[in-house]
Write a structure and sequence with these properties.
Helix 2 (18-28) packs parallel to helix 9. Strands 3-2-1-4-5-7-6 form a seven-stranded mixed beta sheet, sandwiched between helices. It has helices at 3-14, 18-28, 47-50, 63-73, 114-124, 144-149, 157-166, 181-191, 199-216, and strands spanning 36-39, 56-60, 79-84, 99-105, 125-136, 170-177, 226-232. The protein is α/β, with parallel strands linked by helices and 233 residues long. It has nine helices and seven strands; from the N terminus they run ααβαβαββαβααβααβ. It is globular and about 45 Å long. It has one domain: Rossmann fold (3-Layer(aba) Sandwich), CATH 3.40.50.150.
Amino acid sequence: MSHGNIEKLTLLLLENAYSYHKYIFEEIKPFLRGKILEIGCGIGNLTFWLIQHLPVLAIDMNEDYLELIQKKFAKHPNLINTLLWDIRREPPKEIYNQFDTIVCSNVLEHIENDESVLMRFYNLLSNRGRVIIFVPALKILYNQLDLELGHMRRYGKKDLLYKLNKCGFKIYQIKYFNIFGILGWFINGKLLKRKILPKDQLYIFDRLFPFLIKVEKIFPNTLGQSLIAIGEK
């Protein structure tokens, strides 16, 4: 099975992970403002939450995903439109300085030259615009699941901070998210060498997630399956 097929299947499995996406949104909601440019919208798992709050232009390099977004959210007033764009290439001129927030979730790890993409984000944003980055964390956790999804890397906190600063962003916050997800990712990808997360595990995990996230907040923020970074131009 190709990277693209596994990615699509994973997105479809995660479509029902209501609690997981809700809590990602709750983490980033205080930093959202103005018009949002969502990079790598996929099939709309996070788009669903973003358009409840602010106007969104949803971007992806997969035309099938964008068609699905249009069907799912066609009547929602906060979906500005969708745009087919490969972020490894120069952006269309009409989107420069039009957006106050860029949300980029689980995209940078697929890009070989991620710094050039972050620089594009900086140039695209309006004055004092914000970038919100969500990426897989902990290099040591890289395993078969990452490989099958086409991940080129997982990120350390210092690496991500360095790259954002290098591209001109001032950092508001950088934190780990989902400490309990580490165990499932390690067992399934490292020990069992699975190519995709089992559907039944995702179902149980999502039902437990509201409780797990409360427990996570009790402990110091020193580990997590993902990193969330907030930067300002």
